[in-house]
Every structure is written in structure tokens, then in C-alpha cells.
Design brief:
By secondary structure, this protein is of the alpha+beta class. The protein contains 3 helices and 10 strands.
Length: 225
Amino acid sequence: MKKIYLLSLFMAVVVGIAVYFFASSIEQKAQMQAVTKGQVVVAVMEIPANTLITADMVTLATLPSEGINSYAATSLSQVIGTINKYPLLPSEQVLSPQLVEKGKESGTLSLALEEGQRAISVGVDDISGVSGYIAKGDYVDVIATVIPAESNDPVSTSLVENVLVLEVGTKKAAADSAASYTTVTLSVTPAEALKINYAASNGRLRLVLRPILDDKIINPGNYSS
């Protein structure tokens, strides 16, 4: 009788353990199925900083939601064609705040330049800089007064028209005067940069502010007395 009791007790323990593990496995499966997932863009290769991201550099990956960065890009269209400001490692999530669009404001002037353009700064004062009224995003014409080699008479000439202002120098103000800047940075072609540099070195430059929406090129020619 004692043996039967012990055997029954042993079987009850075995059945209890089996039921426990069975229930635990069901609970684990339910938990695994309950984990939500999402898609994010990740790098498939090492991408150096300041690289134009192409389709072969990134892919979509499915990750548990709890492991997804809240700033991660969720579609390839958000990433392809942009420039990453920081290096990316393989399988690293691509974060939207670390991407910039080419030619758009980014805090880095070289990224704001369109392809084929160059940034050049010219010195200005209250007269040549339109009394401090030139602002970033405006368009200006650049004119110069130079003395030709074949004549002693100064000539006023239009160097370039409808040039984008990338930045203006930090404004400084004396105690008895209004704030003004001493440099203006322009977006020009390499050929225009040469013309501006030559005129600045051999004559005097003046910027002429254009009205909004006026992008007509006039080519007024030279003027001399």
C-alpha cells in the first residue's frame, strides 16, 4: 500500500512538471507572437560621411519595435538621393535627422551648393553692400569698376547677374552706428569666380540687390565717361 502511495505521488509530480513546462512553452510562444515588429532602413555596407546614398547602399529590415530608433527612416524614398552627415556601419539604422538633401540648408555650406557651383566671399561696406539690406537667399548682380590696360579711364562693367547669396558675414555694430556686415558669400560658377576675383584684385566691386522673382539677365554692357 505504501509503495502504491509513493508511486502515485511520483506520478503526480511528473505530471505536474510536464503540465508546467507545457504551459510555459505555450506562454513563450504567445509572447513571441505578441512582439510587434516594424520596418526600418539600414545600411548594407560601410558608408563614409558626406556620401550621396544610392539604392545599393541601403535596404529595408524588419526589427522588433522596441529596438527601432524613433528617428529611423522607414522607407527607402526617405534615404536614397540624400547625403549622410555622419558615417554609417553595416546593419546600422539610418536616422532621418542625419540626412540632408543636396542643395538644401544643412548647416554645412558645401552641402548647400548645387553641383557645378562654387562659394566665393567678397568684401563689402555700407555702400557696396547695399547698406546692410542684403540677406541670405537674396539674389544680386555684381558690378565692378576697373581701369583697362589700354586706357586710364575707369570702366564700370557687369560681371555676373542673378547670383544667389549663400550667407552674409556676422553683423557688427559700433556704439554710434547701425549693424552691418563686411562680407557676402555668393554661389557662382568657376568662371564667374575667376571674374569676380580678378575684378576684386584690380578694381572695386559693388553688389546690386535684385527684386524678388526678377531673374531676367539684361547684359547691360560696360560704361565709361
